[in-house]
Amino acid sequence: MSEYILDVTDVDKNFGGLQALSDINLRVKEGTVHAIIGPNGAGKSTLLNVIVGRLAPSRGRVLLGDQVLTGKEPHEINQLGVARVFQTPEIFPELSLLQNVMVPAFAKREGIFKMNFIKSLFSEKEVLEHAEHLLEDVGLLQHKDHLAGSMSRGDKRRLELAMCLGQQPKLFLLDEPTAGMSRHDTNRTIDLLKRIKERGMTKVIIEHDMHVVFSLADRISVLAQGAIICEGTPEEVRNDPRVKEAYLGGETV
Amino acid sequence: MSNTKIVSPKKDMIFMAILSAVVLTMPLWLQPFGAAYPDLMQKFMIFGIFAIGYNILFGLTGYLSFGHAAFLGVGSYTAVWSFKLLSMNVIPALIFGTVLSGLFALAIGFVSLRRSGIYFSILTLAFAQMSYNLAYSVLTPITNGETGLQLEQADPRVLDRMSGIEADASLPTPNLFGIEGIGYSGFYICAALMLISFFIYLRIFRSPFGLKLRAIKSNQNRMGYTGFSTRPYLMTAFVISGMYAGLAGSLLAVTDPLAGAERMQWTASGEVVLITILGGVGTLIGPLLGAGIIKYFENIFSAFNDTVLLNAFSFLPDWLAHPIASVVGLFVGEGWHLTLGLVFMLIVIFLPGGIMEGISRLSRLLFKREKTEPKSDGHENKEKEQTSAGEV
């Protein structure tokens, strides 16, 4: 197994004439938190979409450890150990919080497809306990029987985090996990993410909030107009003149 | 509308016991409603099976099929052929009817499930109409076209002849080892099968498989990123509900051994959609209630004719009775579908969750009156609404 858990090599993505990603090279070490920052429209979400298999790259390839992800379906990539939270929480609004967390737990246990209607949910003690534990972890246990769709946006995000964590992914991708959250909720989420970090889960995180980025990331890549213009430790990135230029536009001209 | 509580199997067994008791005593308690005759009760059971099967697809996965009558028709034709070729015993007829419909569903599902939403509905509708036209004309050697497939004295009935059972002067009737498929015994055969089907349906609802189907309905995108391939799940649900429809179709042939192409027409597909929505999509017993209510009122309303109406309004002076009777006459008898349409519109507009939503609203009203509601904000109130709606 290579030293890097995620290895993105020479990835291009064109949408018609638009070059959304060009020549992306990104390597993430196991157990680290890697942040991707950059102005709006820089291609951050496109990059995540390429990694999880929602979009096929026009060129290049993506590896998870030794396994090739390029060309696989999203559910296959998830089964290999990649979980993702979305910019707008993707949960199951018509199910209760507990059921929301149970579904991914079944995915982890049963694989892509299993027809199982002999056992009732009630007798799935292990999954139930696991699910309650996860909800407790994100502080939602008291709402476990509520409909997920009726929760606040911050709660939905934390629910989505719990759903992904339940799968114990090798690689966890977070697309702006604190967007639209209040300061209070943001801090709670940072605490939660820090706790997860201690468990050694590799994370790639896209974020606009520099407070979040600098308090979590081990390494940062800066994306602008579809290319990585700078990569390094938070300290290096903070002091790089190219980053300031990318964010502030033509101010230095 | 979804079940948010995880129900213990013990409660489910109690529920099954109550349901069985209610169903099996139907000949008694339906007496005062004038519905306790076998023909109608058989219809309750058969359309109940059809509707709960349909609910597995529509209620759990949210895929609206407009072609389920095709499976009903396949079940009927297969059952009649089984009577003609093999035996008048209902067991082979039911097995072949169910299995063949399942295979048929596999083929239709394979193509239709490539699309979702309205395109899926249109594809299933197209397939059902194709099947109807095939049955009506092209496949006349198999389906006997317009006339419909009927039993004949001279049918081979290989198994029956082998065991020395010969049809006497009259046409033979379908039977379960001598228990006739018509009349009260026919009702009990249908009721037993309905209860077995319901039990399987209940297990599906309560299982991880059912949870995943509901998750597909709720957010198919998330399902993909959760490591599930949705196609095989949808396919399984589609085939299971096709088999339920096939079973219902074969039972129709058991209670009346005649299969016609009109059973496959789109109106028949529409009827099961209507039954399910009227009862409550995605609820456990909603579809059963819907089937019972629609079949009951169809029976009552379509029996009215002008003379009955004139009699009913005879207390009015003649000049008033006649116009009123003729206006009301539009809504009954042949025109009962007009009434059905109106009721359906009212339900969809005011009670989108069907009768089950109505029941849970009522029970909440009563509950509130008994106990003063603890102070809670609107958010929580809405929560309770959803939860209680889902419990039954």
TrEMBL record, chain A:
MF terms in GO: ATP binding; ATP hydrolysis activity
Pfam assignment, any one: ABC_tran
Alphabetical list of SUPFAM superfamilies matching this protein: P-loop containing nucleoside triphosphate hydrolases (SSF52540)
UniProt KW keywords: ATP-binding, Nucleotide-binding, Transport
Domain ABC transporter intervals: 6-250
Membrane-spanning segments: none
CDD domains, per the entry: ABC_Mj1267_LivG_branched
This protein's record includes keyword Transport: yes
Gene3D superfamilies reported in the protein's UniProt record: P-loop containing nucleotide triphosphate hydrolases (3.40.50.300)
The keyword Protein biosynthesis appears for this protein: no
Assigned GO CC terms: plasma membrane
Top-level taxon in the UniProt lineage: Bacteria
Protein name stated in the entry: Branched-chain amino acid ABC transporter substrate-binding protein
Source organism of the structure: Thalassospira profundimaris
Automatic annotation (TrEMBL), chain B:
One Pfam family matching this protein: BPD_transp_2
Annotated membrane topology: Multi-pass membrane protein
Single GO MF descriptor: branched-chain amino acid transmembrane transporter activity
Residue spans crossing the bilayer: 13-32, 44-66, 86-111, 118-139, 182-204, 232-252, 272-297, 309-332, 338-359
One cellular component term from this protein's GO annotations in UniProt: plasma membrane
Matches recorded under CDD domains: TM_PBP1_LivM_like (cd06581)
Cleavable signal peptide: none
Chain intervals for the UniProt region annotation (Disordered): 372-392
InterPro entries for this protein: ABC_transp_permease, LivM-like
Domain of life: Bacteria
Keywords associated with the record: Cell membrane, Membrane, Transmembrane, Transmembrane helix
Subcellular location: Cell membrane
Keyword Isomerase found: no
Keyword Transmembrane helix belongs to the record: yes
Name assigned to this protein: ABC transporter permease
Bias kind Basic and acidic residues: ranges: 372-386
